[in-house]
Amino acid sequence: MTDIPWLTLAIALPALGGLAVALLPRERVLAAKWTALGVSGAVLVLVAVMAARFAPTGGERLQFAEVYPWIPRFGVNYAVGVDGIALVLILMSAVLVPLVVLAAWHENDDADDRGKGYFALILVLEAMMIGVFAATDVFLFYVFFEAMLIPVYFMIGRYGRGPQRRAAAVKFLLYSLLGGLLMLVAVIGVYVYGGTFLWSELVGPGGALAGVDTTAARWLFLGFFVAFAIKAPMWPVHTWLPTAAGASRPGTAVLLVGVLDKVGTYGMLRYCLEMFPEASRWFVWPVVVLSLVSIVYGAVLAIAQSDMMRLIAYTSVSHFGFITLGIFAMTSQGQSGAALYMVNHGFATGALFLVVGFLIARRESSAIGDYRGVQKSAPVLAGVFLVAGLAGLALPGLSPFVSEFLVFIGTYAFHPVPAIIASVGVVLAALYILWMYQRTMTGPAPEGSARLRDLSRRETWAVAPLIALLIIFGVYPQPLLDAINPAVEATMRQVDVTDPAPALGDADTTASGQEEGDHE
Amino acid sequence: MAVSELTLAAEQHAHAVTTEASGAVLENSWLLIALPLVGAAILLLGGRRTNSWGHWLAVALPLASFGWAVAALLHMLGAPPEERSYAVPVYTWFSVGGFDAEVSLLLDPLSISFALLITGVGSLIHIYSVGYMAHDDRRRRFFAYLNLFVAAMLVLVLADNYALLFLGWEGVGLASYLLIGFWQHKDSAAVAAKKAFLVNRVGDMGLLIAIMLMFTTFGTVAFHDVFGAAGEAGQGLMTAIGLLLLLGACGKSAQLPLQSWLLDAMEGPTPVSALIHAATMVTAGVYLIVRSGAVFEAAPAAQLTVAIVGAATLLAGAIIGCAKDDIKKALAGSTMSQIGYMTMAAGLGPIGYAAAIAHLITHGFFKAGLFLGAGSVMHGMNDEVDMRRYGGLRGAMPVTFATFGLGYLAIIGFPLLSGWWTKEGIIAAAFESGGAAGMVFGAAALLGAGLTAFYMTRVMIMTFFGKRRWADDAHPHESPASMTVPMIVLAVGSVALGAALVFGYRFAAFLEPAIGAPEHHHAFSMATMLTSWPSLAALGLMVLGVATAWFMYGRREVARTAPRAGLVTAAARNELYGNAINEGLLMRPGQQVARALAAFDTSVVDGLVNGIGTSVRDSSRGLRGAQTGFARTYALTMLFGAAIVVATLAVRI
């Protein structure tokens, strides 16, 4: 099993694919597209095979691990490996990329290179996304974390939408750079205190960071946390996201919001919590408060938007609030819910962005006011839009419900007040989604305007897998949770927190007795 | 047997012993849900290929579910009463730490009663819809949504834990949303659908918090375990859970203060109004409260609140029903009112549970029948809903007239018809519950009976009697057999079902193992029902209501346009200003907050960051040069900067 360097292959394949696409002659755009689709499809197969060989229980915490010295002088290693959380995120990324390629097939046909560079960038980005989730060396993680900015910067600035795209790309870059620099300082600090960059050697009761004094650890925590909060994005450092998403091609937005932003919340769970357990517990309430502000603020701002891309971006601010809330609730339901939320949000928001992309492809606009009564002429498109939207409002039966529900359960067990405040988001979500649907898809189709085409076969294939996954994991999410749960348990042990016991202890024993009966 | 002693002797809330289901019928009772769900999937995914036969498949699958439910009932009746509770584990939905959400069903007298109502009345309405929707080019989709509804509603009533119940709970909300807004090309329909979902979400929020509270209190959300430990938790905690469950119930069942969506929901096609917004979904709140009886038994304050909400809604709905000229909205007000009766009865505790459920079942028949009748009238009158444009229709639509008339007699509580039996049960329970509260609830129920007789007589007269006030192009005709046959079946139920359930205490005894029994059975003896003073008062008020309506609408000519209204009538026409209150208190302030926050986000939050950026730029000439350069420069600068930092690090160490 260890003979095959799965993760290195999963990083190298798209990287080489991206290079190949970039090197193709300018006129071979079609070949570039098919190469991108083929390579990302192959990556998906590779990652899926790897996932099937993953042992959720009984195996090592980090599986498929590879460690090679990279810059021995500074203790930097090329070290990769995954636990259940990293695995499901890599899987999610590998699912999204080929669909984005398919959806973006004609999006840049009028660019000066007819989009060839865009497809190369997507593949390069995929390599970095897999790398950032797989890295188990803090410095390697930092390198991927920063390097990811470059392809995204060009995907927005060069291949984006509207006159503001360059400004949006710069804003995105400056924000990210600010966070990145703070993190770099913290990364150096980790090395100064710990003497190693290897995550597995840093964490744990006997780990290299165990002896760091409290104040220093809290500062280091902040260094990482601010970078992750900007990436996530969390209120009040969220304003780059609506701008960036509004200027992005929908395919870019899928990867930006669906995958890249997850690096922030993933980083909190993996690096902030595990490397600085005491500081994490100390910062619980400030982060919970910021999460609640994000949830409500993002939702209210989403309601106020008149542009669909910006609206979805703000819903994500709200959703990321749920994720950070779940992480810092410090309960198993909260953290497993948060990890699952990252996957589900990728699929749900991905589907929503793709559908808006299909609308843009038809009418060159993402303004809500430019659409009306679409369901009459394009019922399939409207149907997909509705399902994706319902996933966004966490309707039971679709996968985001499971994760949001778990975050609620886990948060309430932590403290009732934040859970109750967060539940306002449930009502607001219904408003921003259904109001957008009502304004764009329902009502009489305006007279005189051209009928909108319904989804083409290519578009259907790009979005149907996401809809299917939303339903499958809505009804049967346990396989993902089976992978996530052991990793969360390990994290909680590391942070030294346990689930609060139910108020009535003996009721719990009756419960487990009953369950055993139910299972035969 | 010790078990049966325990069950029957328990004063508070007894639960039969639940055993794992055995036998092919019970073990596979998940098929009840799966059959209509498959129907919805085939019709939605099959596309146009299923246009020609899809609706028949959609009729057949709920019918098959109904057959299965009947088989399960027979199986159940074969067992001794205290053993009629079966667990049907299917699979684990999700499980983290100490939390388990099981897909596991509970078949007991209460849930099977609902399953029979949902699939039985549901199948009839499916059949009716074949005719009613015959000319709609999206009929296939309509049937898909109807099947989806039946499946979700069955999940709601068959779940054996609150997490799975919530799936059904929001599932029916989705189906309701899709069907209210079925004619989405109309703005009014789309807005009504959104409103229904939103108001329901407020209620769902309550249910969701109740579930969280249950898990942190009991460590489980399974009915069996929560109810078993309900007495051990503090009363404050149980009151909180009870009130949160009530909030959920208010949303789904259109009880005050979350009633405002139901009248707008009449934008949906009439079969939807009959099935979802009269017979089944809107009664889910009553189901939730009765099912959670153990919770409310441990929380007297919450229980009293339930009864108060029910009593207030039963009057408010009746008052609204008195003033509406739109036949469907008049009936919707009536639905609010009738569910108010049920909610009030459910708030009386075990003494009212059987009465609430019995009325729920008979109401399912006569109200569905009334709505289908209204649909039949609309079908023959070019979709006209204004009763001021009806009149004298009894000759043109004899079957509709007869079936609607029987439903009418049932709902006003005409002696020996279904509604009489079950409404008497509620009135009796209210007075028997004792104390000043019991008198008030009883009085509300009596007053409601009078109002019911008034507004239903008004509907009856304006529609079927008096002069013809039809539009010029109206050519009323009787509806096809696919529509009239379900109406006839429902009319038979409206006449006979009440006696069949109530006479001889049959239904209450059947439900007893599931919902418990009051300390003293108030046996429904014919003698007391006809001679007790509440019964006589109810009868008298009914006659008074009918007579008043006849004087106002039967003897005088009905104007073709609504006359100017006094203060009370105007309030009733405006649904007691519920929408105005919502708009003034929530919508407009909410919009202002949203706008203000949006401005705040761009000017302050973003502005602050941009400001920092600007000041940095201004303080550094070199960077300003870079800012005005090409995009590429930035990336290179960034990379370069990072490289310098790394290099510095390398040199220093």
Automatic annotation (TrEMBL), chain A:
NCBIfam families, per database record: NDH_I_M (TIGR01972), PRK05846.1-4 (NF004500)
Domain of life: Bacteria
Gene Ontology molecular functions: NADH dehydrogenase (quinone) (non-electrogenic) activity; NADH dehydrogenase (ubiquinone) activity; ubiquinone binding
Family: Belongs to the complex I subunit 4 family.
Family annotation (Pfam families): Proton_antipo_M (PF00361)
GO biological process, one term: electron transport coupled proton transport
Subcellular location: Endomembrane system; Membrane
Organism: Streptomonospora mangrovi
Ranges for domain NADH:quinone oxidoreductase/Mrp antiporter transmembrane: 135-428
Enzyme Commission no: 1.6.5.9
Transmembrane segments: 6-24, 36-55, 75-105, 117-135, 141-160, 172-199, 219-241, 253-271, 283-304, 311-332, 338-360, 380-399, 419-437, 458-476
Any one of the GO CC terms: endomembrane system
Record's keyword terms, sorted: Membrane, Oxidoreductase, Transmembrane, Transmembrane helix
Record bears the keyword Transmembrane: yes
Annotated region described as Disordered, given as residue ranges: 499-520
PANTHER family recorded: NADH-UBIQUINONE OXIDOREDUCTASE CHAIN 4
Topology of the protein relative to the lipid bilayer: Multi-pass membrane protein
Protein name: NADH-quinone oxidoreductase subunit M
